[in-house]
Amino acid sequence: MNDTAQARRQLGDGPLSRFASRVYILLVVEVLLLVTGLPTLLPLLLLDRDPSNLPLVALLLTPVGPAVSAALYALRHQRPDLTDLRPAALFWRGYRGNVGGALRVWTPALAWLTVLALNLAYRDAVGLPAWWVVPLVLVTVGVALCAANALVITSLFQFRTRDVLRLAVHFLVRTPGVTVGNALLLAAAAGITAVFSEAVLALLASVVVLGVLRVADPMTDLIRKEFTA
What is the dihedral of CA 158, 203, 138, 114, to 10 degrees? Predict the structure, then answer.
């Protein structure tokens, strides 16, 4: 019996062992998300929920993009083999490899979302008619959903930034299930933040990232089939 088979036998390969391994992976990724996001999370918790703080919120959220990208990479590439659990190594590999691409799609998305949110918050001051609220909300949601697609694509594939953005918009329409799923996750995240706090959402970050990854499966399968060798 070889070493791998012996180790697997010692660890067990039943449902309980598989469940424990998944919990372990999520906990490790959660800790690393908190570590990389700690400089953002602490100041964010101290800010008043006032629209005037939106630009500062966007600035503080900038490091979140690369961290989420690394988590997506780690959760996607972690092998199911119980003898080869190394989510931390995969997280840091994904962070180093994707930090540039993640920032190139995450930073413009934050900028657009900030501008749109400020226009919604101060629509009376800027003289926007009431009927503008609906299209602004739709555009805001569209930008957020495109950003989610783009972050998944740039985390899992090697494309130029403009191609990532084109694919993100393309699959927003082509895979409506992914779009609806991300919209539901976005609504759930907003609800958790509104009812509880950003800290509670941060503690569930790895679960949310796993949800985004699973929702995006139809999109990533099509990209792998049609746009990669």
Answer: -80
> How far apart, in whole angstroms, are the C-alpha atoms of residue 25 and residue 19?
10
pLDDT tens for 80-139 read 666 668 899 999 999 999 999 999 999 999 999 999 999 988 888 877 788 888 999 999
Q: Which residue reads 């941060």 in tokens? A: 202
Q: Contact 106/65 with Cβ under 8 angstroms?
A: yes
Six token digits for residue 176: 């409506």
pTM above 0.85, yes or no: yes
Query: How wide is the angle at C-alpha 56 spanned by C-alphas 213 and 112, nearest 5°?
Result: 55
Query: How far apart are the C-alpha atoms of 146 and 65, rounded to whole Å?
Result: 14
* Residue 33 CB coordination number (10 Å): 24
Q: What is the CA radius of gyration of the chain?
A: 19
Q: What b-and-e string marks burial along 154-189, b requiring 16 or more CB atoms within 10 Å of the CB?
A: bbbbebeeeebbebbeebbeebeebbebbbebbeeb
Element holding 117 (H helix, E strand): helix 87-121
Q: In what helix (H) or strand (E) does residue 169 lie, and over which residues does it extend?
A: helix 161-174
How far apart (Å, rounded) are the C-alpha atoms in residues 87 and 73? 10
Which tokens go with 104?
A: 């190139």
